[in-house]
Amino acid sequence: MKRRVIQAFVGVGLLAGLALAGPQDNSLVVGTSQEPRVLVGDFVNAISNQSIKFEIENFLLPPLIQTSRDVENMPVLVTEAPTVANKRVRFSNLPGGKRRLEIDLTLREGAVWSDGTPITTDDVALYYDFGKTKGVPTTSPDYWDRVGLQVKDKRNFTVTFEPAYFYDLDGNPIGYAPAHIMRAEWEKAKAAAQGRDAAGQAEVFRNFFTQYASPQALNAGKMVYSGPFILKRWVPGNTIEMVRNPRFFITPPGGADKYVQKVTYRIIQNTNSLLVAILGGGIDASSGVSLTFDQGRAPQLTRRAEGRFEVWFVPTPFFEHIEVNQFTNLEQVKNLGLADKRTRQALMYAINREAINKAFFEGLQPIAHSWVFPQNPMYNPNVRRYEYNPDKARALLAELGWKPGPDGILQRTVEGKTVRFELEYQTTAGNAVRERIQQFIQDNLRQVGIAVKINNAPSAVVLGPNRARAQDGAWTGFLQFAFSMGLQDDGVRSACRDEEGKQIFVPTKENGYRGTNFGGWCNADFDKLRAQAVVEFDVAKRKALFAQMQAIWAEEVAMIPLYFQADPRVFRKGLVNWVSSTFASSGSPTVEPWLIGWEQRGAQKVYDQAKYALTIPSANR
After folding, report:
1. Crossing angle of helices 353-361 and 432-446, rounded to 10°
2. Helix or strand or coil: residue 243?
3. What is the SS3 assignment for 360?
4. Is 35 helix (H, G, I), strand (E, B) or coil?
5. How far apart are CA 603 and CA 124, in angstroms?
6. Across residues 179-197, what is the average pLDDT?
7. Paired strand residues for 598
8. Phi, psi of 356 (to 5 degrees)
9. What is the CA radius of gyration of the chain?
10. Rounded distance between C-alpha atoms, residue 439 and residue 320, angstroms
11. Residue 304 has what pLDDT?
12. How far apart are alpha carbons 237 and 460 in whole angstroms?
């Protein structure tokens, strides 16, 4: 895939009452279609792992090591990125051909929290304690099972991984949290969680993080920050305002005063309304979670060119898909047979994904056949593919005992009672493309006799704790959203059990809803291959294992794959370093946020979006 772009500009009149944002006062107004449930204080993502959360947190809480736009390790809070060459990385052998990895890190001298307190290894140790404590409902239990920490002094420490996974040297190996703010209350929370079951422990710990991460807590000043910005005010459903942190330890070229001093995220969940706001001039840039693909190609943006906006399209590994609830403890799931791969295969044959791609994306967003992005070296192009074939769908459904009822909707007898094939379908309300795709799929399924009940909700609900509670019936059929694991993708989103046979990747009441295999698909062969792949450092051998994993995944229809997103980025001319790339922080434009600024105010252009964008036909031709 060639990596250049045809850029277009637009000139539109201002909407009445909307003043221009931007270089006049050296500020930045960003439009987003999602609102985070929490920010910053939810350090181990016990409450939320939304993309918009991570995007905004880049302003407030930089990592120790960041993946640059060119997919290289860049030290931020530490003195240097560890490598074998600088002797900060050591491997040792473990039984069974596995390895132990040790990574030596040194915190920057002079790095402080926004209240002036030095950032030390006490903060790293607290973060480590968060994740290691039994009952904390993290989304990455596998990581916490393997990671270790050895503190040497206030600035030096060693992170260990046993066994080491192939991606453990890519990006950030561990986090940190303000011990001087949170340690005392954390000890109380641990004491309160003792003796409770997993669900009770999860509730205690979520309440603990909420008291530092909710809008109310942050507005009350209960959190400190380490990034180039400080959260000033959060008006739920409206705006999140941040201002420059005078104590931030990195000075951009020419001085911080030449770069953006205030950042405001405007929350407009309806993406059509968001597009209108951008055209009106009250928004300077689109978030990584904002406009849909077709809105980025709207004639208002691509044909009325007078140099006010730049419009780019960036390929991303964000996997748009439908999770299928496979928890058979739910009567609805059991009656519809959603845990039977033949049902899921029938659903695949019934959905015209090629038509979706042509109708909504002009064929420019690649149809997904597994969860692995085509630009990932682990991609297998030869997995089973499901063409649109409603006759095959009907045949499979008939094999499962489904017959048309009086109204044309399929029905069958289950345990002596008649069951109607009506499927609940949920996605993020206000996302115009998702809602249109949803209606398209609803019509596709109706043609094979399946009724679809749409039950959408705001993104904070769909992508919040409810997503992990499929076992409890928080959603009972389809759940559509996107996720990205970047180059660190190890298949954990579809994993069920680890190599010791523990079920730790599927969120359940019994494990405090830990893990990200939300639909509950389980396959022992997939898990076995994954256990081998994650510790395999030979790229060719790992690719062969991933190929088998993807073949099983596609045959079983672990999820319903739709497409990989190519995301529009719209921003006003003159804004520099608001640049996204495919794999840096999963395509977020807020990597190195201290560099974001206006050329008119003296900010220097360090990154060029043209280097990281996708070739698409120009709408101006």
Report:
1. 150
2. strand
3. helix
4. coil
5. 33
6. 97
7. 575
8. -60, -45
9. 24
10. 16
11. 54
12. 10
pLDDT reading at 120 higher than 50: yes
Contact 76, 63 (CB under 8 A): yes
Residues linked to residue 412 through DSSP beta bridges, in sequence order: 419
Over residues 175-187, mean pLDDT: 98
Count of CA atoms in the C-beta half-sphere (13 A) of 57: 26
The pair of structure tokens assigned to 238 is 């409206």
User: Which has the closest alpha carbon to 402: 450, 356, 360, 332?
Assistant: 450
Strands across the sheet containing 89-93: 89-93, 99-106, 156-161, 147-151
Give the bridge partners for 105, in sequence order. Answer: 157
Q: Phi/psi of residue 533, each to 5°?
A: -65, -40
pLDDT averaged over every residue in the chain? 91
Burial 463-472, CB ≥16 within 10 A → b, else e? bbbbbbbbbb
Residue 321 near residue 415, CB atoms below 8 Å: no
| Tokens of residue 533, six digits | 């792949």
Report which residue type is found at 596.
I
13-55 pLDDT tens trace: 333 334 456 899 999 999 999 999 999 999 999 999 888 999 9
The first and second tokens of residue 465, run together, are 């704790």
Alpha-carbon dihedral of residues 206, 208, 212, 216, nearest 10 degrees? Answer: 70
Q: Which of 368, 570, 588, 382 has its CA nearest to residue 480?
A: 368
Q: How many residues does the chain have?
A: 621
| Dist CA 345 CA 556 (whole Å) | 8
Task: Specify whether the CB–CB gap between 274 and 296 falls below 8 A.
Answer: no
What is the token pair recorded at 420? 């109607």
Q: For 354-368, what is each residue's pLDDT tens digit? A: 999 988 887 778 899
Q: Can you point out the beta strands (E) in 94-244?
A: 99-106, 147-151, 156-161, 229-235, 239-244
Tell me the residue type at 148: G
Work out the pLDDT band at 585, boundaries 50, 70, 90: low
Query: Nearest to residue 47, comparing CAs of 264, 217, 162, 202?
Result: 202
Residue 429 has which token pair?
């309300």
Contact 168, 161 (CB under 8 A): yes
pTM exceeding the 0.90 threshold for the entire prediction: no
The C-alpha atoms of residue 355 and residue 520 are separated, in whole angstroms, by 29
Residue found by looking up tokens 């005392």 in the block: 184
Q: What amino acid is encoded at 333 in this protein? A: V
pLDDT digits (tens, 9 = 90+) for 448-497: 999 999 999 998 888 888 899 999 999 999 999 998 878 888 999 999 99
Q: Where are the alpha helices (DSSP H) in 362-482?
A: 390-399, 432-446, 459-462
Contact 165, 211 (CB under 8 A): no
Residue found by looking up tokens 């407009």 in the block: 268
Q: CA of 463: how far to CAs of 431, 467, 567, 598, in Å?
A: 13, 6, 19, 33
Strand partners, 323: 479
Q: What's the CA gap between 169 and 160, in Å, rounded?
A: 11
Q: Which two tokens stand for residue 48?
A: 């939320």
Residues 6+ apart with CB under 8 A from 256: 228, 244, 248, 594
Three-state SS for 586-613 is HHCCCCCHHHCEEHHHCCCCCCCHHHHC
Cβ burial of 184 (10 Å; 0-12, 13-18, 19+) is exposed
Residues 6+ apart with CB under 8 A from 568: 286, 291, 292, 293, 295, 296, 297, 311, 312, 313, 314
User: How do 560-572 and 309-324 pair as beta strands?
Assistant: antiparallel
Mark out the alpha helices in 141-261 (DSSP H runs). Answer: 141-146, 179-193, 198-213, 215-219
